[in-house]
């Protein structure tokens, strides 16, 4: 199972970016998907998460500015980031919790991470 994140870059304060993360592999079902971020010298933190049914959860620092969504047909999760601030600068990672079936037909629950995409908010 692989996750490919894209959409990071340099943006001025107040600007917007949209991150995408596509999941590929022989999976049966994707459950929760999410975005985390890690700033230099800081621990990785949850930014936003979304269940397979569309329920969402956000860090207090991004509520009202960021929106997480997903396209189940494309196995893709998105993060729309508006009103960006310098403190949003970080490497953003996507993840997905999934179920697949092994060669014996047994269900296997797993979690995979994307490679990270750098978001820099600076004038």
Question: Which helices and strands occur, and which strands form pairs?
Answer:
Blueprint: E1 2-6, E2 9-11, E3 17-24, E4 29-38, E5 45-50, E6 56-58, E7 66-71, E8 76-81, E9 90-101, E10 107-113, E11 117-121
Parallel strand pairs: 2-11
Antiparallel strand pairs: 1-3, 3-8, 4-5, 4-9, 5-6, 7-8, 9-10, 9-11
Any descriptors?
0% helix, 4-stranded antiparallel β-sheet, mainly beta, 7-stranded mixed β-sheet, 123 residues
Average pLDDT reading: 96
Strand content: over 45%
Radius of gyration: 15 Å
Query: Stretches where pLDDT falls below 50 for ≥5 residues?
Result: none
- Summed up, the helix count is 0
Instruction: Please count the beta strands (DSSP E, at least 2 residues each).
Output: 11
What would you call the shape? Answer: elongated
Major pleated sheet: 7 strands, mixed
Q: Helical residue percent?
A: under 10%
Separation, N- and C-terminal Cα atoms: 37 Å
Topology as a string of helices (H) and strands (E): EEEEEEEEEEE
Structural class: mainly beta
What does this entry look like structurally?
With 123 residues, the chain is an all-beta fold. The protein is 0% helix and 58% strand. It has no helices and eleven strands. It has strands spanning 2-6, 9-11, 17-24, 29-38, 45-50, 56-58, 66-71, 76-81, 90-101, 107-113, 117-121. Strands 2, 4, 5, 6, 9, 10 and 11 form a seven-stranded mixed sheet that branches. A four-stranded antiparallel sheet has the order 1-3-8-7, with no helix packed on it.
């Amino acid at each position: 199972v692989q996750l490919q994140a894209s959409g990071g870059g340099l943006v001025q304060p107040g600007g917007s970016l949209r991150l995408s993360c596509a999941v590929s592999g022989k999976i049966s079902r994707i459950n929760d998907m999410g975005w985390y971020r890690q700033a230099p010298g800081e621990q990785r933190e949850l930014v936003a998460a979304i269940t397979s049914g569309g329920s969402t959860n956000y860090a207090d620092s991004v509520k009202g500015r960021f929106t997480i969504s997903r396209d189940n047909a494309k196995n893709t999760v998105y993060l729309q980031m508006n009103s960006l601030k310098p403190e949003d600068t970080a490497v953003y990672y996507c993840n997905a919790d999934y179920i697949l079936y092994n060669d014996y037909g047994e269900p296997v629950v797993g979690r995979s991470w994307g490679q990270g995409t750098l978001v820099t908010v600076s004038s």
